[in-house]
Amino acid sequence: MTSKFPTRLLASIEVPDTPLITKAIAYARENSDDFTFNHVMRSWLFGERVAAANPALKDRDQEVHAISAILQDLGWSFNQQLISKDKRFEVDGANAARAFLIQEGEKSKWDKHRLQLVWDTIALHAIPSIWMYKEIEAQAASTGIFVDFQGPEKSPGGVLTRIEWDSVNKEFPLLNFREAVKNISCGFCLTKPDTTYDSFPREFGEAFVPGYKPRTFIETVWQGAEDN
């Protein structure tokens, strides 16, 4: 694929290089702990590598892809101004990314469609049964995130090599990845459990949080439904 943006090599992966992507990296770094920052950067890099080898993803907007991946987890930032009391972390992250783009993005390039595409990609990135049918930018960004969880051997088509994986992880180390994800998920189950009942933190709450009892769909929706 020939990028319409300037490019550079980062941890052996060719990535687009724009002022707005640079600002997004700085914003993620400013509002993320080391574990989270490394995770989002790895996710972006893995997604770029996989998408570059997939003809179906070659025409994606690489800037949308990059910013969606880099800002994906603002919803579990230590900056409490970005965190709500009543929304899923993915929605908080999507809202924070959109606010960043409205402030920093050039209006001529960041129309409503691009803003919505970043919002959708981040809000849905933990729901593969939906994002795999979304726009190719959402597919590329979310695939990179899942590769970071699953390893190079499970990258689509096995295109990500162990050498590339190691190079990216050397630049952006895992830093006790599994335990950190567990702790963050359990934290949501403790601090705002109503936002976890239909998201993946629910499984961590059921496994590790004493007294956590999620409501079911029947309890939350069906019992209040009325026949027309």
Condensed summary:
The chain is mostly helical and about 230 residues long. The protein has helices spanning about 20-30, 35-50, 60-70, 90-105, 110-125, 130, 135-150, 160-170, 175-190, 200-210, 215-220, and strands spanning about 5-10, 15.
Index terms:
Hypothetical protein af1432; 2 domains; 11 helices; mainly alpha
What does this structure look like?
The protein has a two-stranded antiparallel sheet with strand order 1-2. The protein is mainly alpha-helical. It has helices at residues 19-30, 34-52, 62-70, 89-104, 112-123, 128-131, 136-150, 162-171, 177-191, 201-208, 217-220, and strands spanning 7-10, 13-16. It folds into two domains: 7-174, Hypothetical protein af1432; 176-228, no CATH class. The protein is built from eleven helices and two strands, in the order E-E-H-H-H-H-H-H-H-H-H-H-H.
Terminal Cα separation, in Å?
A: 53 Å
CATH topology of the largest domain: Hypothetical protein af1432
Spatially, the strands of the biggest sheet line up as 1-2
Count of spatially separate domains: 2
Topology:
Layout: E1 7-10, E2 13-16, H1 19-30, H2 34-52, H3 62-70, H4 89-104, H5 112-123, H6 128-131, H7 136-150, H8 162-171, H9 177-191, H10 201-208, H11 217-220
Antiparallel strand pairs: 1-2
